Give the backbone structure.
Amino acid sequence: MRYLLCNGSPKGNNGNTSMILDALAEGISSVSDQHIIRANLNRVQEHESLVLTLLDSEVIIIAFPLYTDAMPGITMAFIEALRPHIGQFDKHTFCFVVQSGFPERIHCEPVEKYLIRLAGILGAKYGGTLILGGGMMMNPKRFQIVNHIGARLSDTQVFDETCIKNATPLIRFPVVSRGLMTLATKLPVTQSYWDSQLKANGAYERRFDCPYEPKD
Ligand SMILES: Cc1cc2nc3c(=O)[nH]c(=O)nc-3n(C[C@H](O)[C@H](O)[C@H](O)COP(=O)(O)O)c2cc1C
């Protein structure tokens, strides 16, 4: 079986997506002889040739971090590069990995709906979406779950539904925790981190600008 694992993080090999794909690849290759190709989508100039590699693969995994509740632009650009080939994916299975900073699944669910639709638009088989909330807080146990999902994938060529549900069981924090967190975000100590980032980037004075607000 030929696998193509695409890393849609702008940080390439230095990000969390890369570590998650390492665990998945290890799981896939643990079962039997599998042909795995890894690619970083941050090399945008290589997208066209990568589409040809994708056409030559059977299982495609597109992994990306959640950026402002959506996908990074480089991931979207790669998906758009598939458009001229719609109709040529009937023998391909597309699986997705979405990992987010927030630990709750709910943040990734809208993009998951889009990915299900995308597989349909491409005319490909949908192999599931592995959502990893708190992707920057991975620990050995969570990496082991990803590893196991990879091993199951090489058996069935789709993500095991129970395994992917267990990867991030928390859908949403309970109401009380959400209330406490909302309060915490108002504390000066929480704001000071964001203010320091704004200052470091020379944007502090313009933090309340609304450039797209219609002017009377
Ligand atoms: C520009 C930017 C936007 C982000 N937006 C979100 C977001 O909307 N929701 C979320 O849960 N995490 C968000 N994050 C956190 C990332 O999803 C998280 O840190 C992820 O593990 C980064 O993966 P990477 O190191 O492979 O890029 C954002 C991070 C960045 C840099």
Remarks:
- The beta strands are 2-7, 35-40, 59-65, 93-99, 125-132.
